[in-house]
Task: structure prediction
Amino acid sequence: MQQVNGGNRRALPPTSYLRVYEPLSAFSDEDQLLITGTRHGDRETLEDETASNALKRLTRQLSDPFPHQHHEVFRKLSITGWDGAPHTLYCPDQLATRAILASEQLDGSMRPQLLELLVPNAARAANALRVDEQQFTDDLAHLHTRTATWGIPFGWFVLVHEDDEYEVIEDEEELLSSRIYTPLHQALNRARYAAATLAIHAPEMDLLDELTALSEWLLLFDKDSMVELDYGRIAALVWPDDSPHDLRLGIESLADSDMAGAAAAYRRLSNRWLAVRQLARAN
Result:
């Protein structure tokens, strides 16, 4: 368990992340030069800086949540390979692209008057002039990070198991995050198995479409990549979390035609996240 100072993170809405870390060889020559030429500091220092910069964007005198001058940063993950040798994997932040995607997602989730206050058309127009169209297109085709606010999509839990490697990060007041790691090929196999089970026994579930989309996304990355489920501050509300176990048990019950067991597992899962959804509505 790591002890850090997370004041800036606590000031932001609870957000979770699903990230893919790839080996250096998976990146373009330009990105490899950027990665090898950059001094990579402590992970938690990077998260604090990221939160601080987000707060500065959100509290500008003129509403404009988009990054103005942004240099790509890479999170890194050190692992021990099957050969016993240490390896370092990298995940680009792709902030400029993710900010645009986030603003577009708001279009269908709030009234136009409120949207104009949070993301003014003038700010969107100015940001469009700053965006490198080719970089934006490349990022969209190979986006390393998925984001969710005030919750975690159930499909993400399929990718990880309760016995996967994890770490817990806290400050003096509360949990700041819990992160679970699993090899990409293992996450992909889990998603495919779950999707096949649902296709046979519960094809009407929305989770099936979600798992299909996740499988297609994972196929974009190098086979030696790692997947990280980062709970972010959601961890303070649910950790220790049995959601991966309950979802896996529910899917295995479906495969065994044990509908009662599947229903019980899904009920536990839904009840656990009901309080989180209620907090989201209150905010």
